[in-house]
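Below is our example:

___
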Amino acid sequence: MKALVYHGPGRRSWEDVPDPGIVQPADAVVRVDAVTICGTDLHILKGDVPAVEPGRILGHEAVGTVVAAGAAVSAVKEGDRVLVSCITACGRCRYCRSGSYGQCLGGGGWILGHRVDGTQAEYVRVPYADTSTHLLPAGVSDEAALMLADILPTSYEVGVLNGRVRPGDTVVVVGAGPIGLAAITTARLFTPGHVVAVDLAAARLEAAKRFGADLLVGPGDDAAAAVAEVTRGLGADVAIEAVGVPETFELCARLVRPGGHVANVGVHGAPAVLHLEDLWIRNVTITTGLVDTYSTPALLDMVAAGRLDPAAFVTHRFELREMEAAYRTFADAGSTGALKVVLSRRPAAR
């Protein structure tokens, strides 16, 4: 089969690799019908995730069809259409039993495209298939479901729920890329008073407006002054960091009000300064986290009921064989306007 293989920082190729098979009784093999590229994949290619070894097939999000299931698999069977979650869960360890699947001790957590071969391929082996895939209703499209593999649950859990967004809150989202836009979308489920989007790119700020932000802060704007104006000088109730660089984290810490929450979602590859000399007296709560995907079934229900439209995140479509072109488009989002790219087994609709 063909797959996107990581060969060290800055190097990747779409090449022939052996087909995956059943290794453990809890495994399933899924034919990849649709896959996407994540900002984390770009971090890997920059060398920010040293646990990813050369030779690894990248990718941790997919929608596909089960083509083989191990003897211990009972929840899915050959022919089932499934969402492959970015998080793998053994379902038995202490963390899995509490819904903290991202911290799985039984060989799960974020492993696809990280510690085992991932989804940017024609086929993928999914460990612990019963607890790491979700059967898809007939009415949910591949594109909509694919957005529930990572960005929607990540933004919802690590940003909105960890940040404790409540009705009437002022929520600042720093970074209007796919994760930031997903945070805006899911924050609006809680009817906040204001949603403020901060970004350097005009195209992404326009996207933030479409996704529900009512105040846009761009280059040359004073973010602190803008937030102060809509909060009567208090600051944001919740500041969600959705970039993963020191400057954006430190900006969130400056924008949050006393007693507020900073929810860090971005993947950081360098240290950020934590100004405890300013924060300790302000009762600020800072949370970080890897997504657990415990919210995926609820989000899937909302999509099936027409309450969420994740397919709106998709801006570019490719065929699987166009993986290299899709990476170039996604990596150059400032020029291409890419939010999420989808690569499909079937010919892509342009």
Q: What stands out?
A: The chain has a mean pLDDT of 96.
